[in-house]
Amino acid sequence: MLAYTGTWKGHRVTIHGTGMGMPSLSIYVNELIRDYGAQTLIRIGSAGAMQDSVKVRDVVLAMSACTLSTPSRGIFKELNFAPTAHFGLLKAAWQASEKLGVSAHAGPIYSSDVFYDERPDLQEQMQRHGVLCVEMEAAELYTLAARYGRRALAVLTISDHLLTHEALPADQRERSFGDMVEIALTAAFA
């Protein structure tokens, strides 16, 4: 997996791919923590909106991440662990989004194991309970950060909308995610 280390405003930063989904992310995050001593892990990526109030190109700051399963589920057995973001990172990201004038939302998200979900009943219940969007990695990221005492946050840009079926074309996805990156980097070093 590719990783690049450089600087941002004088701070050392490593950007590292995680593959797709919680199992892949789990491998890389465990190794980043264990082998390289990573202390702050921020996932940036795309997500699908699940609420009318969340629009395409908006940014979502994931306070918590619900999921049907995770590679860590075997550890908890019958316990429904509620993985959450690091509050300091979340607060700093919120402040960064306000300063940038970015339309941001903070709240619960859903980390799915499948890209093309076929559970409309589950989607309806998540919408009813205020879940803002769906993505595929944050629940395991937050679980591992809690396990190892690290700071974690997911900063997501809405690329698709499950209710309106609006979607950003590929070329716009490549060019319109800069605010998310700026928010993540600002939060990391606040």
Question: Would you give the CATH topology?
Answer: Rossmann fold
Structural class: alpha/beta
How many helical elements?
A: 7
Q: What's the domain count?
A: 1
Strand fraction equals: 25-35%
Oligomer: single chain
CATH superfamily: Nucleoside phosphorylase domain
The helix/strand series, from N terminus to C terminus, equals EEHEEHHEHEHEHH
CATH architecture: 3-Layer(aba) Sandwich
Main pleated-sheet profile: 5 strands, mixed, barrel
Order of the strands making up the biggest sheet: 3-6-5-4-7
Stretches where pLDDT is under 50 for at least 5 consecutive residues are: none
The CATH top-level class label: Alpha Beta
Cα radius of gyration in angstroms: 16 Å
Can you describe what's shown?
This protein is an alpha/beta fold. The protein has one domain: Nucleoside phosphorylase domain (Rossmann fold). It is built from 7 helices and 7 strands. Strands 3-6-5-4-7 form a 5-stranded mixed β-barrel. It has a two-stranded antiparallel ribbon with strand order 1-2. Strand 5 (104-111), helix 4 and strand 6 (133-135) form a beta-alpha-beta unit. The chain is globular. The mean pLDDT is 93.
Element layout with pairings:
Elements: E1 3-8, E2 11-16, H1 22-36, E3 40-49, E4 59-67, H2 73-76, H3 87-100, E5 104-111, H4 120-128, E6 133-135, H5 138-148, E7 151-161, H6 170-175, H7 178-188
Parallel strand pairs: 3-7, 4-5, 5-6
Antiparallel strand pairs: 1-2, 3-6, 4-7
Helix pairs in contact: 1-5, 3-7
